[in-house]
Structure formats: structure tokens, C-alpha cells
Amino acid sequence: MTSVTGPITGGKGWPFGLPTADLAAEGYRADEYFVEGEAVRYGPVADTELGRDGRWSVEPVGSAPYKTRLVVLRPVDAVAFNGTVVVLWNNVTAGYDNFTGGDSPEVFENGYAYVAASVQRVGVHGQPDNPQGLRDWDPERYGSLSIPSDDSSFDIYTQVANVVAPDRPRGGLDPLEGLDVRRLIAQGASQSAARLASYLNGVQPLTRRFDAFFLLMYFGGGTAFEVGDEVMTVSAVSAGTGPRIPEGVHLLRDDIGVPVMVLNTECETTSCYPVRQPDSDRFRYWEVAGASHVSLPGIASSSPRMERDFGFAIPLDGEAMQAVNQVSVAPVVDAALHHLQAWLVDGTRPPAQPLITFAGEPALIARDDNDIALGGVRLPQVEVPLGHNSAMQQSPDVFARLVGYHESFPDDKVRALYGSRQVYLARYEEATRAAEAAGVVLPRDVDPLLAEAAEACPL
Questions:
Q1: CA–CA distance, 458 with 311 (Å, rounded to integer)
Q2: Euclidean distance between the first and the last CA atom of the chain, given in angstroms as a whole number
Q3: Quick check: 266 and 391 in contact, CB under 8 A?
């Protein structure tokens, strides 16, 4: 039996990782709750394997007690709620509990609720050599939390979803305070997408808990169900002391009646190439050319949270930081969520998109004269470039792989490409309108993209 307590207050006075957007101005509020219970662990059914086809059979193999937290972002006015709760599997590869989502224009304008779920051990307990877990960050607020291992994470995620689902218990505390929930979307990015891949392939057939899956920056492989004390963090992978996310090893099942949408950047595309699968009635796959796993706009958006929660600002203007990929996929993420909602509500499937082009043996991403990827979802910054943006790795470490590469064109090259400011802006607007027509940019994001071009153009 899962028990819920809250809203949680005290300690430093705010939930760790809370978005810094002015939620009240958007008609939203945020509340934190604790959930606790007994979580089962899963393992493969005897004489079966977690094969390439993704059609896995798993079963409970034990259980352990846990206590963790969820943060609920929701419209204040129940009339504004669109009936969909996105349950976010918080990412912990940085060594702390990190949730991104719940504060974008699509969320606020279309009335989603977001539930950020802390389901992995390192997010709560941190690492011994770098204690950034919830318990260390605010012992007064989070000192009672405990997750035995990541083996429990899949069922903890289910139990978090249970307390915000359409059929959630109504006799006691309700984290959504009576909102009429009609749909649950499971969302995760990077390492969390890998966890969701395993959930989709093995656990969802048992629980039937989610109505759709939204995987972002997915490397083509699910994490193991039984890992014991192992935790996956970027620093551990970089040092060669921790497990890596599996890459390009299996398909995602689309035979269980729920929509599955994957949105990748150029960075993950190479890993997913061996397991690309065609779009179907229940599957959509988008790849964004010229984008990388981590971008400078993404780092900038997280900087206010880092300053509030950790007390330091991320320097954005240094030479090394300016070499980080500068293409934001945030508008495409919003567009994908918008299409996923329509898919659930009225059956309108997201538009299919061209894939990034590969050529040669071994197959590599095909590139133009500026080393910009061909094919894929084409954002205007890539289609009408003022510089090179890609996921091309500049050094062998894992961080360089994630941040990709940016280099601005010299002014004389920009002038040779476009001739005048007017021509550049006209071509950029044409590319933006083409992205809007393709469904990868929503109408609300057109003007911000045009403003970005006007500010960036050196002519």
C-alpha cells in the first residue's frame, strides 16, 4: 500500500530542482509530496532473454521498502487543466536529482500537469565522493527519504503514477486535489529515457499504467533491471568506474496499444542507427539535425536553478562554453508533446519526419560543405546557418560527446552566403515557416525564432 504525505514544507523552503519560472503568473502552482511503500524488483522470466525485438517478459523477483518524493506542477484553475499528467522520470546522471520540464510554453498554454518523480537511489542518497543527493542538500526536509537501489526504480515509478492517475485513490490525500485526470504520459530524457525503454518493453505489459511514452535523447538501449548498488552518472562513466547507457541494442515495442514517441538529436542518432524502426500506427521517431545532447541554450536555461540550489552561476561567455552546440531543441520538444496530446485525444498521429542521412561503410552521418548534417528535422538555425552546429565530438571525453560543437562563420563568409541582412532574414523566415508547416515548430514559437535571427545576424 502506497502512502502519501504533504504538501511538504520546511528545510530550505523550496523543493530541490523546482523550475524558476514565475508559476503564479502562468496560473500554475507547485507542491511537493512524499510517497512510501514496498517496491518490487523485476527480472527476466526464467528461460527468456531481453532480446533485440524489445518484446521482453519480466516478473517480480523481490521487494524492499522505500520513501521518496514527487513534485506536482499543475494549473491552479481546474478548468484550465487539459486532462493529461506527464510523469517525468527525473534524470540523475549529473549525480543529483534533475528534472527539466513542466515550465515550457506548451505546458502553460495547454494546461498539462507535470509530476517530477525521484525514483533512483543517487538522486536521494548522492555519491559518497560527491554528496549532492536530496538527503545531503536539505537534511531537514529530505533526511527521511530512502531508496534501496535502482532495482526498485521501475515499481517506484509505477507507484508514483498510481497516486496521480485517473483511478487514483480518492479517500485520502490527493496530490492533484481533485483534477479530472484522463491520461498519463511517461516522459524521460537521456539516462531516464533508457530507464523508460526498459519500463516500456518489460513493465508496461504488466502494469498497463501509462497511456503514452515520450522518450527524449534516447541512445537506443534500455538499462538493466537488476544492477544492485551500481549507479549511472556522467562523472563515473567518464572515469570508467560506472555503467554506461546501452546504445543501439534493441527495438522499442509498439505492440501494446499505446503511442510511443522518440525525439533525438544528432548526438543520439548515430547510436540509434542500428535499431532505427519505421513509424507505425503506434510509433513516431524524430531526429533533429545540427542539434546535440546538451546545448548552450539548455545550459543557460538551467543556470538560474543552479544558482538558487547550489549557489553558483554557470559562466556562459567563456571560449569553451561558446564552442558548445547552440541549437535549442526546446521548440521541437514542445511541438512533439503537442502532437502526442492530439494523438491521445483524437487519434491524430504526429507528422512523420525525414531522418538524418547516413552514407558509407561504416555508415556515418552525411554532411554538407559546412559539416552540417543532411536530412532530419531542419530548424532554421541549421537550414540558414550563421555558423556550424553539430554533435561532432571535439575530444575523447564523455562531456565533449554530449555538448557537440559550435563555430560561428566569419562575417565575410556570412556576407558571401547571404549578401545582405534582408536576404538572410527573408531566407530564415522561409525556413522557419517551413518548419512550422512540417509540424516541428508550433505557431507560438515562430516570432521568438525570428527575433533570435534578427539579434544574431552580423550584417
A1: 35
A2: 64
A3: yes
Give the amino acid at 94.
Answer: A
How high is the pLDDT of residue 12?
97
Rounded to 10°, the helix 421-438/446-456 angle is: 150
Tell me, what's the pLDDT at 237?
65
Gap between the Cα atoms of 391 and 29, Å rounded: 36
C-alpha cell at 150: 535502482
Q: How far apart are CA 329 and CA 290, in angstroms?
A: 10
Q: What does the angle CA 94 – CA 100 – CA 106 come to, to the nearest 5 degrees?
A: 165
| Distances in whole angstroms, Cα of residue 382 to Cα of each of 90, 108, 409, 419, 432 | 30, 28, 13, 18, 10
Helices assigned H by DSSP within 89-177: 105-110, 121-125, 134-137, 139-142, 153-162
What letter does residue 146 receive in the DSSP assignment? Answer: B
For residue 117, give the H/E element and its range: strand 113-117
Question: In this predicted structure, what is the pLDDT of residue 432?
Answer: 98
DSSP letter string, 36-88: EEEEEEEEEPTT----TT----EEEEEEEEEEEEEEEEEESSGGG--SEEEEE
CA angle 225, 229, 124 (to 5 degrees): 95
Among 94-108, 229-243, 379-393, 395-409, top mean pLDDT goes to 379-393
Q: For residue 137, what is its C-alpha cell? A: 542538500
Kindly report the pTM of this predicted structure.
0.97
Q: Are 38 and 64 in contact (CB under 8 A)?
A: yes
- Dihedral (CA of 394, 418, 328, 344) sign: negative
Q: CA angle at residue 265 from 263 to 271, to 5 degrees?
A: 95
- Is residue 28 within 8 A of residue 75, CB to CB? The reply is yes
Length of the chain: 459
Q: pLDDT tens digits, residue range 329-365? A: 999 999 999 999 999 999 999 999 999 999 999 999 9
Q: Which one, of 94, 133, 124, lies nearest residue 236 by Cα?
A: 94
**pLDDT, position 346:** 97
Contact between 101 and 51 under an 8 Å Cβ cutoff? The reply is: no
Rounded distance between C-alpha atoms, residue 453 and residue 429, angstroms: 9
Task: Name the band, by pLDDT with cuts 50, 70 and 90, for residue 127.
Answer: confident
Give the pairing of strands 113-117 and 183-189: unpaired
pLDDT in tens, 151-168: 999 999 999 999 999 999
pLDDT of residue 1 exceeding 90: no
